[in-house]
Structures are given as structure tokens and as C-alpha cells.
Design brief:
By secondary structure, this protein is α/β, with parallel strands linked by helices. It contains 14 helices and twelve strands. The chain has an eight-stranded parallel beta sheet with strand order 9-6-5-4-3-2-1-10. It has a two-stranded antiparallel sheet with strand order 7-8. The structure holds acetyl coenzyme *A, pyruvic acid and magnesium ion.
């Protein structure tokens, strides 16, 4: 283990110092763009103002014979738009560490657009050693290309081994931005019997005891609850952010919304959007409910220094509920700063 005092030292001479605290950003959705697809890429300048993060995907879903086109498309896309001006993050998902493409992904992207790249998403992270490797390599590349601010790292939690090591992945480096659940690869890695990309499964249920001839009550359970809970705890314990990943059935917006909302309530900051139809869902879900914001604002106002006990509408409030309220009010302020319509609804002054 690295000595605490060395944790925040740059890993290469000339590389920027790691952030002490993560930049505070609204990241309700990480919108996936296939950079080898010229038609979709052409939509990115307009898209940039409407999503919180644009991610150019180089990994799965890009055919092997188009990996180079995707990489080149990402560079074109990064140079063509001033993402920072619209408050939009620019991320990429690189190929896996054991693939033949990862070195060229990082060498090309940091050289060509390292100063515009906010976050590198790393797939199939198995343990802290994967993060240490990327951390060192990014530092060397940042130093070589004079990159001014550190490029952050986001891990996908999508292997059984990764879940077993989730805490040490979250604490592996000050470069860690957060983590996303990868339900498709994770299902395969665990030997789960589903072909779905995220969401529930109708056969994963509990049933009530038999009671004579009456039909036994039965309810579907959440396949992802355990993993999301572990991911959120690992992330929040280390001051980084947790995200739900993809919801693959674009035709079922209702189920997508329920999956996103469960993740939001459990502590996730956002989710992936793979199709334009999912952007509005993420915007709806990853902003707090106005009635909840109004109640939270009353709690904060009723306990100006955050201590003591008061009653509001018959409900006891104390230091702990003040902290819950603060989570909601702080998020509402972040949303309001970007969304004038919601700013009016929240009315937080
Ligand atoms: C398990 C995992 O790893 S998940 C992450 C990997 N997967 C991805 O990144 C997939 C990202 N999404 C996509 O590539 C596309 O949405 C596809 C290929 C799945 C489907 O694309 P299409 O068949 O074109 O879908 P559809 O016809 O419904 O698209 C409607 C419009 O939205 C556009 N569109 C589709 N996806 C996107 C997107 N991600 N971003 C912006 N625009 C998009 C289409 O180009 C089309 O535009 P048009 O109306 O001008 O023709
Ligand atoms: C998100 C992802 O990569 C997966 O589900 O496998
Ligand atoms: Mg995957």
C-alpha cells in the first residue's frame, strides 16, 4: 500500500497534480455515442447542450474492424465541439486492458485531445491493479503531451472478480471519478441466466406460503439490488460517484425509468443513455422531486446550524434528517444551475 503522504503525488514528472476533491458536476446521464458512425457523430454538437456527459465509446458495440475508425471519429468529435463551454463532460470508454487496442486508444486520445478529455472509462476492471496501471500510463502520457488537468478514471463494475474487489477499486487512486454497473458483462461473468441488458427478470421472484386454494401472492425482486448497494457503499465511502449503467430495451421506457429511479434512490448520481429516447428519462429521474425539495428546504431552514430536534408536519427532524435534507437541497441547486425550468419549480433563491 502506498504511504498516505504519497497518495496525491503526480505519478510522472511533469504530470498535473491529482485533484484533492472531485470537481462538482451534474452528471445525470452519460450519453453513449458510437464515434465510428458518421451520422450519429454529426449530431454531437447539438447533443452536447442537451446532455451532461457525451461519451465516445471505443469498446463493446464497436465492431473489431471499426476500432480505428471509432478512435479517429472520437478525435474529430472532440476537436469539433467546445464541450466545456456548454458545461458538458467529454468522456471516452477505452477498450479492455487485455485487448489489442487499448494502447493506441490512450496514446492517440491523450496526444490529440488530452486537454479536452475529462474522464476515461475503463471496462472490465478486476481489481486495483488495473487502476494502478491506467493511472501510471495516463500520468506518463499527460506529462509527455503537457496536459494541464488530470484526466479522471471511471471503472465499470462488470466482472465477478471486480465486485469482489469493489472497495479496493474505489480507493485505488485519487484519479478515480466513480463506477458504473455493467449488467451485461457482469451477468455473463457470474453465470447468471439472462440475456437482458439491465433491468428486472420476470422469473426472479418470491412467493407467499400456500394458503388453501388461494393463488399464492408473488412479487418480482430486483436482480441488481445487491451489486448496486455494494457499489454505492464503496463509492461513497471513498468520495467518488456511483452510476447505474445501460438499460438495453429501448422499447420499454417505463421499465427503464423504474430501474433508473431505483438506482437514484439507492444513491446513484446518474445512468447511461444509449439512445436519445432515454435522455429525457434520465433528466426526469436524476433530479429530486419538487415536493421532496420543498420539504428538505423546510428542514434545513428549521435547523439553521444542523443540530437539535424539531417537528415538521408530525415528523421528527434531527441532525441526521438535516443531512438527508442537505443531500436533496444540494442536488436541487446543482440541477437548478443548469435547468432554468426546474430552478423556477424548486425556487431555492
Ligand atoms: C452493454 C454495453 O456495453 S452498453 C454500451 C454499448 N452500446 C452502445 O454504445 C450503443 C449506443 N447506441 C447506438 O449505437 C444506437 O442507438 C443503436 C445502434 C443501438 C441503435 O441505433 P438506430 O438503429 O439508429 O436506432 P433508431 O433508429 O431508433 O435511432 C433513432 C435516431 O436516433 C439516432 N441515434 C441512435 N442512437 C443514438 C445515440 N446513442 N446518440 C445520438 N443519436 C442516436 C439515430 O441515428 C436515429 O437518427 P435519425 O432519426 O436522424 O435517423
Ligand atoms: C455496461 C456494460 O459494459 C455491460 O453491461 O457489460
Ligand atoms: Mg460491458
Amino acid at each position: 500500500m502506498k504511504l498516505p503522504r504519497r497518495f496525491f503525488q503526480p505519478l510522472a514528472t511533469g504530470a498535473p497534480a491529482p485533484f484533492r476533491d472531485l470537481p462538482v458536476k451534474l452528471e445525470r446521464m452519460i450519453h453513449f455515442v458510437p464515434p465510428h458512425n458518421e451520422k450519429v457523430r454529426a449530431r454531437v454538437p447539438d447533443l452536447a447542450g442537451t446532455v451532461d456527459v457525451v461519451l465516445g465509446n471505443l469498446e463493446d458495440a464497436v465492431p473489431a474492424d471499426q476500432k480505428e475508425a471509432a478512435r479517429a471519429g472520437f478525435v474529430t468529435m472532440a476537436k469539433a465541439t467546445d464541450f466545456a463551454a456548454t458545461g458538458t463532460g467529454l468522456w471516452t470508454r477505452i477498450n479492455a486492458l487485455n485487448s489489442p487496442w487499448i494502447l493506441d486508444d490512450l496514446f492517440t486520445l491523450v496526444a490529440e485531445c488530452g486537454d479536452k478529455l475529462d474522464v476515461v472509462m475503463v471496462p472490465k476492471v478486476e481489481g486495483p491493479w488495473d487502476i494502478h496501471y491506467i493511472d501510471q500510463l495516463l500520468a506518463q502520457l499527460e506529462a509527455r503531451h503537457g496536459v494541464k488537468k488530470p484526466i479522471l478514471v471511471h471503472a465499470i463494475l462488470e466482472t465477478a472478480e471486480g465486485v469482489a474487489n469493489v472497495d479496493s477499486i474505489a480507493s485505488a487512486s485519487p484519479r478515480m471519478h466513480g463506477m458504473s454497473l455493467g449488467p451485461a458483462d457482469l451477468a455473463a461473468s457470474r453465470g447468471m441466466k439472462t440475456t437482458r441488458v439491465g433491468g428486472g427478470h420476470p422469473d426472479y421472484r418470491v412467493i407467499a406460503d400456500p394458503a388453501g386454494d388461494a393463488a399464492r401472492a408473488s412479487a418480482q425482486q430486483d436482480l441488481w439490488h445487491y451489486t448496486i448497494a455494494r457499489m454505492v457503499d464503496a463509492c461513497m465511502a471513498n468520495g467518488i460517484k456511483a452510476f447505474y449503467g445501460p438499460f438495453g430495451d429501448f422499447s420499454d421506457s417505463e421499465a427503464c425509468e423504474v430501474q433508473f429511479r431505483n438506482a437514484f434512490l439507492m444513491g446513484c448520481a446518474g445512468a447511461w443513455t444509449l439512445h436519445p429516447s432515454q435522455v429525457a428519462i434520465a433528466k426526469r429521474v436524476f433530479a429530486p422531486d419538487p415536493a421532496e425539495v420543498a420539504f428538505a428546504a423546510r428542514i434545513v431552514a428549521a435547523m439553521p446550524d444542523g443540530t437539535g430536534a424539531v417537528m415538521l408536519d408530525g415528523k421528527m427532524q434531527d441532525d441526521a434528517t438535516w443531512k438527508q435534507a442537505k443531500v436533496i437541497v444540494d442536488l436541487a441547486k446543482l440541477v437548478a444551475a443548469k435547468d432554468p425550468d426546474l430552478a423556477k419549480v424548486y425556487d431555492l433563491g
